[in-house]
Amino acid sequence: MKEPINKKKVRIYGAGGHSQVIKEVLEKNNYLVTETFDDKPEGVHHASKNVSIGARKSLANFPHSGDPVIIAVGINSERAEIAEFLKCDYEKAVHHSAIISDTSKIGEGTVVFAGAIIQPNSTIGKHVIINTGASVDHDNVIGDFAHISPKAALCGHVEVGEGSHVGVGAVVIPKVKIGKWCTIGAGTIVLKDVPDYSTLVGNPGVIIKTKKPN
Ligand SMILES: CC(=O)SCCNC(=O)CCNC(=O)[C@H](O)C(C)(C)COP(=O)(O)OP(=O)(O)OC[C@H]1O[C@@H](n2cnc3c(N)ncnc32)[C@H](O)[C@@H]1OP(=O)(O)O
Q1: What are the tens digits of pLDDT across the range 37-86?
Q2: Pocket test residue of 21, 168, 201, 209 for ligand 1, highest count of atoms within 8 A of CB
Q3: Residue 3 lies in a domain
């Protein structure tokens, strides 16, 4: 079949539900998804077609060079692990309805979904997920591999450390610093700084566990 002309090409690493959202954003932005990879056959979404085996089992045989890649894996630690072993160029995916200030920066491999807003002077790291309708206000710093879930609201001057997950509908008041590899539960109200590796839930948010890295 003849490939359509004038399309930018991209590959997607991950073929689950999150991958479906990224694929749609890319296709609406005039990209052609040339290949999809996945390491876990059981995680493949029913709508994913022609999925190739990922790099985990045979790193040497993986086509590292070629079209740029987006790592479409929702679990932050897995996205970080995959980015560690891939030697690819990365693409970004920004839904056309997202509003991103001209003075904010977005790192490689990062995705910004429908209705998300990123206000001025914010810095979003690499391989970050800014999910549907999330609000990242001015002067935020979001670390690599973080995930800001749907409808989460980060006020001004908030920091979110590497790999941290801010759950759906969570609220973070101004100037709060969330450490690295934290989990902020769904609907949590974060009123003060959160130490690394904490899981915080409730209103006001309280730490229910601390998981040190393996
Ligand atoms: C497009 C998408 O789908 S994006 C996906 C976005 N995903 C999310 O936002 C999910 C966020 N995850 C959560 O909120 C989870 O409940 C977590 C991660 C905070 C906790 O999960 P677990 O570690 O499995 O904890 P567990 O379910 O055992 O709960 C521990 C305690 O915290 C409470 N708790 C858990 N989550 C919350 C919450 N969000 N708010 C208030 N209390 C909570 C539980 O009721 C339980 O209380 P108990 O000990 O009195 O019974």
Answers
A1: 999 988 899 999 889 988 888 888 889 999 999 999 999 999 999 999 99
A2: 201
A3: no
